[in-house]
UniProtKB/TrEMBL annotation, chain A:
Subcellular location: Cell inner membrane
Protein name (database record): Peptide/nickel transport system ATP-binding protein
UniProt record similarity statement: Belongs to the ABC transporter superfamily.
A GO molecular-function descriptor: ATP hydrolysis activity
Keyword Chaperone: no
Pfam family, one: ABC_tran
GO cellular component: a single term: plasma membrane
InterPro entries named among the record's database cross-references: AAA+_ATPase (IPR003593), ABC_transp_ATP-bind (IPR050319), ABC_transporter-like_ATP-bd (IPR003439), ABC_transporter-like_CS (IPR017871), Oligopep_ABC_C (IPR013563), P-loop_NTPase (IPR027417)
Residues covered by the ABC transporter domain: 6-256, 277-523
Major place of residence: membrane
From TrEMBL, chain B:
Protein name from the UniProt record: Peptide/nickel transport system permease protein
Subcellular location, record wording: Cell membrane
UniProt keyword Ribonucleoprotein, yes or no: no
Organism field: Methylobacterium pseudosasicola
SUPFAM superfamilies attached to this UniProt entry: MetI-like (SSF161098)
GO CC terms: plasma membrane
Gene3D superfamilies, per the entry: MetI-like (1.10.3720.10)
Superkingdom per UniProt: Bacteria
Length: 543, 287
């Protein structure tokens, strides 16, 4: 094997006293050779991002290296001064962050941001910098380099911005590229393109890539080798084939098992269940923004569907497809322009907010971000009891019921006295579910309820939702971008694109025989399609 | 998930918090200064019973010359130490109450404007701008000149002009919070607007309101002192500004008469500003 580009040996990073564990990372050893991609996988808090930060010398002040070495082509990075480190960053290590929106300076043209790398390291003269910048823009697959070079970040799409980030990271032809969740904020189809691009560039330039991710699907697309971190400890390392298909460690096995399969489970029998929720021809148009170009956006355009009692309808699409708008419109959190919304027999679209207030009990919502959806200044019990109190249940009874609800979602009733910040993301999402169910709704709108959670927690929350649905006969509108989750959760799936439902089919049919070209594109883009071999067998059986 | 601000950093943050309380010297210094002034104000009736405006000894006793009058006496033979301690009561009272008036108006305006938006927002914000165009000190002067110069009128005069900045601050916070998921969640369970504003939104605006309140108290104390300096303070109570104003005439011979209460003003305003700065760091919501 050739000499490794990056060699991390017995690295330990100490957390300040008072943290919940003494070391963020404990005696971690990794190496990456030229042209090789190493994926560091782990859940939140595993220390995977700190590994990246330690390598580029950008650790938060409170975290200190407590032993070990990080060598880049034989040179120890931990011992370098800040000045020397600054020279390494960019020139020898390129970095790509998760959020292409916040990692680019919004008031700087793309060409200036890329050229900054040359300026900072004083390479090339002004003329050649411009030429090289245009070359780079072309190399990362952006159309019309001259136009892109003159654009500001907000004029580009998320995928285009991430391509610009990659161009910046590549500018000085570094030996190592660190990519920290570079595709997490992107849509699946864009993600697939970016992964392909990264892979092609790595091969072309023989760059070593340290790829940080939480997503095993992505791992299976791009990794040569995989390292699995748990609580700062390396639990398993090996070739992608070995780790993904023959995992040795119990934690790796658990993580892999938690990745939802793309094969839908056997459809459940709804019998003669009546329609619980009906949406007809729902439309919402956002007036365009901007001074000169005012273009209205049709976020929902003639959306119609029916959900039966006990049924889950998935609303699937990429960002901007209008799926969240539909979710909020049926809650009347956003006022739709036209259409009908019926809960049972009650038509709620025409009601004023005041008239609708007592009916709100019948349709409830679970929000995406478990950290933003609970008021940090209120006790959990009060948060859950808020709905019943608003609907006229006596305060004392509502608070007592809240404890029962906590039990229902698998938390201790005694936690009612605590504040949200004392809970983990998964626990908070349980609290959010308890709040929605406290009103005994007939319809539950779940807006990406698991997309902010780690896979292992995700599986638990999905199981909880399914269990509650069975027990309470809920009709669930499940909004998600994640086809894996949709496959496991939904009885039928509606695929949305540009505000319209382009396809609505029972889940198994949709996966087996997608009708619309866009659905096929989405399915093709799901990372790690072959991660679970059962998917292929399923297809083979169907054909 | 797995971003640069993921969990380990959150843990680091928690550990850092303890450090920050100790390190935040400006909040501590400000707090100590204010605590001393408060103790002095509280002890004033016990240490110096009787009216501090009464003649106590012969005039122009220099500080440090007579142990019975550690800070000396002024041209009318009034005890300066008694005046400063009693003046602290008046200054703090006026600063506090005027700020409470400001908070009441400002938070109400800001919360309603931010929450309801539309016409209500338009009307309330135009009213706010109208008040902002009035120079606060001239307005206070006018009110005090028309009405009696007494503590309540001074409080009202200051309170009625100081709230626009608070209203804008609260409105901005409310606009931010109004679209937050937890407010949307409360709307979807059918909570009343009153409950949402009082329980969900306002408690989450406390931090910036408290910070600006401490600065507002300081500026109220300054305004009151300025009014008293011009002879428009309440003539029946001892006031720092009034003492500075009175000492002005003997500034060249007996400068301590004006300087000592002046230093008290400096200390109080400095203490409040330091506290406000420190709280701003400590309560920073974005940390």
């Amino acid at each position: 094997m050739s000499l490794p580009i990056l060699e991390i040996d017995a690295l330990s990073l100490a957390l300040p006293t008072g943290s919940d564990r003494p070391f963020a990372i404990e005696s971690l050893s990794l190496h990456i050779g030229a042209g090789e991609t190493l994926c560091v996988v782990g859940e939140s808090g595993s220390g995977k991002s700190l590994t990246a930060l330690a390598t580029i010398g950008l650790l938060p002040k409170a975290v200190r290296p407590a032993g070990g070495t990080i060598r880049l082509a034989g040179r120890d990075l931990l011992g370098l001064s800040e000045r020397a480190m600054r020279d390494v960053r960019g020139r020898e290590i390129g970095t790509i962050f998760q959020e292409p929106m916040t990692s680019l300076n919004p008031v700087m043209r793309v060409r200036d941001q890329i050229a900054e790398a040359f300026q900072a390291h004083r390479v090339l003269d002004a003329k050649r910098r411009i030429a090289r910048t245009l070359e780079l823009i072309a190399e990362v697959g952006l159309p019309d380099p001259a136009a892109i070079a003159g654009a500001y970040p907000h004029e580009l799409s998320g995928g285009q911005r991430q391509r610009v980030m990659i161009a910046m990271a590549l500018a000085l032809e570094p030996k190592l590229i660190i990519a920290d969740e570079p595709t997490t904020a992107l849509d699946v189809t864009t993600q697939a393109q970016i992964l392909k691009l990264l892979d092609a560039l790595r091969k072309k330039h023989d760059t070593a890539v340290l790829f940080i991710t939480h997503d095993f699907g992505v791992v299976s697309e791009i990794a040569d080798r995989v390292a699995v971190l748990q609580h700062g400890i390396l639990v398993e390392q090996g070739s992608a084939e070995q780790v993904l298909h023959h995992p040795q460690d119990a934690y790796t096995k658990r993580l892999l098992a938690a990745v939802p399969s793309l094969v839908p489970p056997a459809p459940k029998d709804l019998g003669e269940a009546p329609a619980a929720f009906r949406v007809d021809d729902l439309s919402k148009t956002y007036p365009g923004r901007g001074f000169l170009r005012r273009r209205a956006v049709k976020a929902a355009d003639g959306v119609s569907f029916v959900i039966r009692r006990g049924e889950t309808l998935g609303l699937v699409g990429e960002s901007g497809s209008g799926k969240s708008t539909v979710g909020r419109c049926v809650m009347r959190l956003i006022e739709p322009d036209a259409g009908a919304i019926l809960i049972g027999d009650a038509s709620i679209r025409e009601l004023t907010q005041r008239q609708f207030q007592p009916l709100r009990r019948r349709v409830q919502m679970v929000f995406q971000d478990p950290f933003a959806s609970l008021n940090p200044r209120r006790r959990v019990g009060h948060i859950i009891a808020e709905g019943p109190i608003a609907q006229g249940v006596p305060r004392r009874k509502a608070l007592a019921d809240a404890r029962t609800m906590l039990g229902l979602v698998g938390l201790q009733p005694t936690v009612a006295e605590r504040y949200p910040h004392e809970f983990s993301g998964g626990q908070r999402q349980r609290i959010g579910i308890a709040r929605a169910l406290a009103l005994q709704p007939e319809v539950l709108v779940a807006d990406e309820p698991v997309s902010a959670l780690d896979v292992s927690v995700q599986a638990q929350i999905l199981a909880l939702l399914q269990d509650l649905q069975k027990r309470l006969g809920l009709a669930i509108l499940f909004v998600t971008h994640d086809l894996r989750v949709a496959a496991q959760m939904c009885d039928r799936i509606a695929v949305m694109q540009k505000g319209r439902i382009v396809e609505l089919q029972p889940t198994a049919d949709l996966f087996r025989a997608p009708q619309h070209a866009y659905t096929r594109a989405l399915l093709d883009a799901v990372p790690g399609r072959f991660l679970r071999p059962d998917f292929d067998t399923c297809f083979a059986a169907a054909e | 998930m797995g971003t640069l601000t993921s969990l380990p950093v959150a843990k680091v943050r928690r550990a850092r918090e303890g450090m920050r309380l100790r390190v935040n010297s400006s909040a501590l210094t400000g707090g100590i200064i204010l605590a001393l002034i408060l103790v002095g104000a509280a002890a004033a009736p016990a240490l110096y019973p009787g009216d501090p405006l009464d003649m106590a000894a012969s005039p122009f006793i220099w500080p440090g010359t007579d142990p019975a009058y550690p800070l000396g006496t002024d041209m009318l033979g009034r005890d300066i130490a008694a005046g400063i301690l009693h003046g602290a009561r008046v200054s703090l009272l006026i600063g506090l109450v005027a700020t409470l008036v400001s908070i009441a108006i400002g938070v109400t305006f800001g919360a309603l404007a931010g929450f309801y938006g539309g016409r209500i927002d338009w009307a309330l914000m135009r009213a706010t701008e109208l008040v902002q165009t009035i120079p606060p000190f001239l307005f206070a002067l006018a009110i005090v000149a028309i009405l009696q110069p007494s503590v309540p009128t001074i409080v009202i005069a200051i309170g009625l002009t100081a709230w626009p900045s608070l209203a804008r601050l609260v409105r901005a916070e409310v606009l931010r919070l109004r679209n937050s998921d937890f407010v949307q969640a409360s709307i979807s369970v059918g909570a009343s607007h009153r409950r949402i504003i009082l329980l969900d939104i306002l408690p989450n605006t406390f931090a910036p309101v408290i910070v600006s309140a401490s600065i507002l108290i300081a500026s109220a104390i300054l305004t009151e002192s300025s009014l008293a300096f011009l002879g428009l303070g309440d003539p029946n109570v001892a006031s720092w500004g009034g003492m500075v104003g009175a000492g002005r005439e003997v500034l060249r011979t007996d400068w301590y008469v004006a300087t000592l209460p002046g230093l008290a003003i400096v200390a109080a305003v400095l203490g409040l500003n330091l506290l406000g700065d420190g709280l701003n760091d400590l309560l920073d919501v974005r940390r």
